[in-house]
Design a protein that fits this description.
Elements (H helix, E strand, L loop, with lengths): L1 E4 L2 E4 L8 E4 L10 E5 L2 E5 L6 E4 L7 E3 L8 E7 L2 E6 L2 E5 L7 E2 L11 E5 L2 E5 L4 E4 L7 E3 L8 E7 L2 E6 L2 E5 L7 E2 L19
Antiparallel strand pairs: 1-2, 2-3, 4-5, 5-6, 6-7, 8-9, 9-10, 10-11, 12-13, 13-14, 14-15, 16-17, 17-18, 18-19
């Protein structure tokens, strides 16, 4: 397990009982917002400018890079169907070479920031302001899905057993039909800010 804490990247091999600092290079002070590990590759999405750090040797050395323009920030990273996907302030990008190069794949998404991504069940979902966008063709085309949403910001997404979960600024909504319709399932109808979601085995 890897975690960004303070100005460094840490790793635990004992379920969080102890942590080892594996890198503290000069870019961690930019407060990376998302982290993805695939085999020996680690990608950290950070702020504007050199907005990604890529390591191909589990954090021993790093290369700074761009996803989108130098004005873009990286908000989400996911792995799916042999590709890496990044949600940025300029839309969705895809990499087929472990994060070395990235291509914009936002056809059907208006110019907006993508705050969350998830992959599963043959679809990719991207969360933005007031809408979740769904792609069933590896991000070639996207369709807006916002029926049932009453909030303005989607902050987190998860998918499990064909059910989509969206964490918003006012709670949690779910869709059982691939994003066609959504319903609120927040705790006792309370409005709470949801910034992260994990769905597994229907829970």
């Amino acid at each position: 397990v890897y975690a960004i804490m303070g100005r460094g990247l840490y790793r635990t091999r004992n379920s969080g009982m102890s942590w080892t600092l594996i890198d503290s290079n000069s870019t961690w002070h930019l407060n990376p917002s998302t982290l993805l590990v695939q085999d020996s590759v680690i990608i950290a999405g950070i702020g504007i400018g050199y907005n990604s750090n890529v390591s191909t040797n589990l954090g021993v050395t790093w290369t700074a890079g761009h996803i989108g323009s130098t004005h873009s920030s990286v908000n989400a990273l996911v792995l799916g169907a042999g590709a890496l996907y990044a949600g940025t302030s300029e839309g969705v990008f895809r990499s087929l070479d472990h994060g070395t190069t990235w291509t914009a794949v936002s056809a059907g998404i208006p110019k907006t920031s993508i705050n969350a991504l998830c992959v599963g069940g043959g679809i990719i979902a991207a969360g933005s302001y007031g809408s979740v966008y769904i792609s069933a063709d590896s991000a070639k085309h996207w369709t807006a899905s916002n029926s049932g949403f009453s909030c303005s910001v989607i902050r987190a997404l998860a998918i499990d057993a064909g059910v989509l979960y969206a964490g918003t600024q006012s709670g949690v909504s779910i869709s059982s039909d691939g994003g066609e319709h959504w319903r609120d399932v927040s705790l006792n109808g309370r409005e709470v800010f949801v910034d992260a979601l994990v769905a597994k085995n229907g829970m």
